[in-house]
Amino acid sequence: MKEDKKLKVAFVGGPMYDYPYSKVPEFESKTGYQVEIGAKLIHPALNEHIADLYSQGKGDYDLVTTHSKYAPSQKQWLSPLDQDVSDEELTEYIPSTIELMRIDGELMQLPRNIDVKLVYYRTDLFGDPKEQSDFEQKFGYDLEPPKTWQQLKDIAKFFTRPPQLYGFVFPGRYSGLFGHFFELLAMADGTLLDKDLKPQFVSQAGEWALGFLRDLYFVDKSCPDEVPDWHYDEVAQFFREGKAAMTTDWPGSFATYKDSTISKVKDRFAVNIYPIGPSGKRWVYAGGFSYAIPQSCQDREGALALMRFLLSDQMQYAEAKRGAIPVKKVARQRIRQETQPGSMEEERLIMLEQTVNESLLIPPKFAEYPLIEDVLWTFLQDGYTGKTSIKEALRKAANKIKQISK
Predict the structure, then answer these.
(1) Quick one: which of 16, 144, 219, 281 could link to 215 by a disulfide (CB 3.0–4.6 Å)?
(2) Are residues 324 and 388 located together in one domain of the fold?
(3) pLDDT for res 364
(4) Domain of 77?
């Protein structure tokens, strides 16, 4: 192995993301490169790590994981790919995913996936005749996967039987909390920011959205006390342990729910499309993870080779088999062909494609977006946990965001 054939990378980590990294030794064997994974962190921590390093001029990565919604804040440290990736290569991808990768017209990243959420629910609970009878007597309608968020709240309250079982669990911090609020706000016909990036969520829609989360956690206590400390991985683990009747999650986690070595509900759950909000609309927070080459890259040829390896048709297919939505046409077609008609997997793919086609909620692309998201979730947490009133939490968040976006 040549001493100079080295690449240093920073990747997002977690059960839904780690599979491709296990194949890096294959890349090393084929190419003679030595790949050093300098960081493998949950997404919020990875963003902080990259920002800290590069803002101090200490960044030395050749390839990094980024995301469609966070890349604009990192653009100053990234290098465009327009001269590296041909139009022919780009046609291998779903066109809408490539558009997500552009910032101010420049191709700054290549997509790994497109992420939208579905509702996960316990089929053994929803299908139990006694539970169905008791629920109908209490609420006056049939127990089934929720069509509206009010139904989800009713069902969550009904199934909450602490400490063995809770009705619903959601990420109580970071982007997971922000995402739930953003979705609920939009489904109440609310607006996060106007065209001048001024906050518009101090409104009836904002109060309903944050109030909904407050009802789940603070009023009805349909969630475990630990929710404010949890992000996506902890939420998924709680559901896999059989302690929640419902949750929401991204496609990449699907395989972990079916894995008998870590999931107690592997054959006792199903998925459903998102409920609609008070406006009668369905919106689902969306975006996509990607790979980008920083300006600090010392071996562009090697970085491009590793990126293409991680985004190969075979890798896309392997990630799709674990639940992810592939962004390359060949992998998507192959998954469709192999999916058994009438299976939960087929229903899941149909729901995901319907969501992607009809209900994508894309955050605005601007450099300060991650900072605004970080500010907002902390105030949202104060509101849903009862530390402050709903109105005060929204007002404080808006005032802080106004200072940032001046």
Answers:
(1) 219
(2) no
(3) 85
(4) 6-114+287-348
